[in-house]
Amino acid sequence: SHHLRLVGLAVVLLLALGGAMGKKLEKRCVNCSYRTYYSYGDGRSLQRVIYTNADYTRGAQSYGCSGNPCGVNAVCQEASGGRPVCSCPPGFSGNPLTHCNRGECLDNVDCRGDLQCQNNRCVNPCVGACGIGSNCDARNHVAVCSCPSGYNGDPYTACHLNDPEEQCHPSPCGVNTKCEIINGVPTCSCIHGFQGNPLSGCRHECEHDGDCGGRDMCSNYKCVPSCGQCGVGAVCKSVSNHRAVCECPKGYIGSAYSECRPECYGDVDCPAGRPACFYGICKNTCDGACGVGADCNLRGLTPVCSCPRDMTGDPFVRCRPFTKEDLCDPNPCGTNAICVPGHDNTGRERPVCNCLPGHTGNPLSHCSRGECLSNNECPDHRACINYQCVDPCIGKCATGASCEPKAHLAVCRCPAGQSGDALVSCRQTRTFPVAKYH
Question: Which residues form the EGF-like domain (predicted)?
Answer without folding.
Answer: 61-101, 324-368
